[in-house]
């Protein structure tokens, strides 16, 4: 049970934590979660959902088992994610080449390395789904 003193203290601290107040701070914080969009599932992107469904249907053509139906969709999601990641990395490489300073190039390399974790995760998920799909056929 939380004491009333602790609850009052938490309320007071929460009221002081109102986020950025300046216009510049608000603009910076607004963009925090929207750098590249790779955390958004590919199925939630309207222009990608039809591609996802077509690819999943092609992968599931041979199978008539319900248990195997999820793997083709997962494989399709991972494949389209990897395409999306490669396109973003390509754009970042182009920007790095055009950067005027060494600091700008180093910053670009650092950002490309950060994004590569999304590619590795998608590749690992796709590999596991392939194994599951082909072990059940």
Describe this structure in words.
The protein has 137 residues and is mainly α. It has a domain at 49-137. It has 5 helices and no strands. The longest helix has 35 residues, at 102-136. The protein is flat, with a radius of gyration of 22 Å.
- Helix content estimate: over 70%
Q: What is the CA-atom radius of gyration, in angstroms?
A: 22 Å
Cα distance spanning the termini: 54 Å
**Total number of helical segments?**
5
What's the main sheet like? none
How would you state the average pLDDT, rounded?
Answer: 81
Which secondary-structure class do the elements indicate?
A: mainly alpha
Shape: flat
Short description:
The chain has helices at residues 4-16, 23-30, 46-59, 70-98, 102-136.
Task: Detail the topology: elements first, then pairings.
Blueprint (H helix, E strand, L loop, with lengths): L3 H13 L6 H8 L15 H14 L10 H29 L3 H35 L1
Keywords summarizing the entry:
about 140 residues; 5 helices; flat
């Amino acid at each position: 049970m939380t004491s009333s003193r602790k609850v009052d203290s938490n309320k007071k601290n929460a009221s002081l934590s109102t986020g950025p107040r300046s216009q510049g701070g608000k603009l910076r914080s607004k963009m925090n979660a929207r750098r590249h969009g790779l955390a958004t599932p590919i199925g939630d992107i309207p222009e990608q959902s039809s591609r996802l469904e077509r690819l999943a249907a092609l992968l599931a053509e041979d199978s008539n088992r319900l248990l195997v139906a999820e793997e083709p969709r997962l494989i399709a999601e991972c494949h389209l994610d990897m395409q999306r990641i490669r396109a973003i990395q390509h754009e970042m490489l182009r920007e790095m080449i055009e950067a005027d300073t060494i600091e700008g190039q180093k910053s670009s390399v650092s950002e490309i390395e950060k994004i590569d974790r999304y590619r590795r995760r998608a590749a690992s998920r796709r590999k596991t789904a392939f194994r599951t799909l082909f072990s059940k056929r």
